[in-house]
Design goal:
The chain folds into two domains: 188 residues, 3-Layer(aba) Sandwich (Rossmann fold); 86 residues, UDP-galactose 4-epimerase, domain 1. The protein is an alpha/beta fold. The chain is globular. It is built from nine helices and 15 strands. The structure holds NADP nicotinamide-adenine-dinucleotide phosphate. The site of NADP nicotinamide-adenine-dinucleotide phosphate (NAP) has 25 residues, from helix 1.
Length: 299
């Protein structure tokens, strides 16, 4: 099986690369810089295509003779203006090219952010009305995938992770962290108090489980069109803040404010992803490992 991965040099992309290789697949890594692939650049089953997705209108040639395309690249830019236009254009081109090249299946790394503003209980089939630029950008990408599939025999699958946590795929490999958790780390490093609201939290995603889900979706017989890819359990911000303080060995106080309203904490349904992965996931250990690395960066 041959899969092309865009954004293969990114935080999640590198984990996907490793997972696909471990499953015996041949992988084309579409990257801007081969150097960012670290040890994977020398793997015999990795074919590297160096290309800027914004410079290359069409990547049909690169996609020929592939069974699957995983689009994990994200075009970053000035918030509120650039990503929507630039990322949307790239997503549209990638999936149109995949359909044109005869790729049987495309998987899109979307985000649980498409569900904002969050409701009490959210599932894959809910109508989307994203109100922020990032959520709208990712929802737009999902639509472009649907559009490319309409005119072809390509199957399109959307994966929506929450905040992704875990160490990089190799030492020195790309790493990202949720903005809120990064803020907590900065506060703890400075010894300043961290404020959280009682009972609020998020369902996190372990980066290795996200990569496993992507690999399974490149192979699955009858996949669903969309999967939320998050833990079943909500990890409270208070617990995360205390973990941050502990891992950084910080004197910071964790201040817990009462919730203003009695509304339930928003929750994503996880039955679909659990059926794919064979059970619920728990990203707490991945978060701790991630925090240890961030703590080292602060020492
Ligand atoms: N991280 C999370 O918590 C999270 C949560 C939910 C969803 N997601 C989604 O998952 C996907 C991957 O996220 P990530 O955290 O792995 O992000 P990342 O580390 O920033 O990776 C983005 C990738 O896109 C590539 N890229 C950017 N502009 C490009 C261009 N013009 N041409 C070719 N490649 C380009 C980057 O290449 P360079 O290495 O050259 O910069 C990088 O490999 C994104 O679509 C994101 O929306 C992430």
């Amino acid at each position: 099986m041959r899969t092309l991965v865009t954004g293969a040099s990114g935080y999640i992309g590198l984990h996907i690369l490793r997972e696909l290789l471990a499953a015996g697949q041949e992988v084309t890594a579409l990257v801007r810089s081969r150097a960012k692939l670290g040890p994977f650049a020398d793997e015999p089953r990795v074919h590297v295509v160096e290309s800027d997705l914004e410079q290359n209108g069409w990547i049909v040639d690169a996609l020929l003779h592939h069974d699957a395309c995983v689009h994990a690249a994200l075009i970053w830019g000035e918030p509120e203006t650039e990503p929507e236009a630039r990322d949307g254009a790239v997503v549209a081109q990638v999936f149109h090219a995949a359909a044109t090249a005869g790729v049987a299946r495309s998987v899109y790394l979307s985000s649980a952010a498409v569900h904002r503003p969050f409701a009490a209980v959210m599932g894959e089939d809910d109508p989307l009305r994203p109100t922020d630029a990032y959520g709208a950008t990712k929802a737009c990408g999902e639509r472009w995938l649907g559009r490319a599939c309409e005119d072809s025999s390509m199957t399109g699958i959307v994966l929506r992770p929450g905040p992704v946590v875990g160490p990089p795929a190799f030492e020195g490999g790309a790493l990202r962290i949720d903005r809120r958790i990064a803020e907590m780390v900065d506060l703890a490093a400075a010894g300043r108090p961290i404020e959280v609201v009682d009972g609020e939290g998020r369902q996190l995603s372990d980066v290795t489980e996200v990569a496993r889900a992507v690999r399974l979706l490149t192979e699955a017989d009858q996949p669903e069109p969309t999967y939320l890819c998050v833990d079943c359990e909500i990890l409270p911000w208070e617990r995360i803040a205390r973990m941050v303080v502990e891992v950084l060995d910080s004197p910071s106080e964790v201040r817990v404010r009462p919730r203003d309203e009695a509304a339930p904490v928003p929750r994503f349904r996880t039955d679909r992803i659990e059926a794919l992965l064979g059970g619920p996931t728990n990203a707490e250990a991945a978060l701790r490992a991630h925090l240890r690395l961030l703590a080292e960066g602060h020492r």
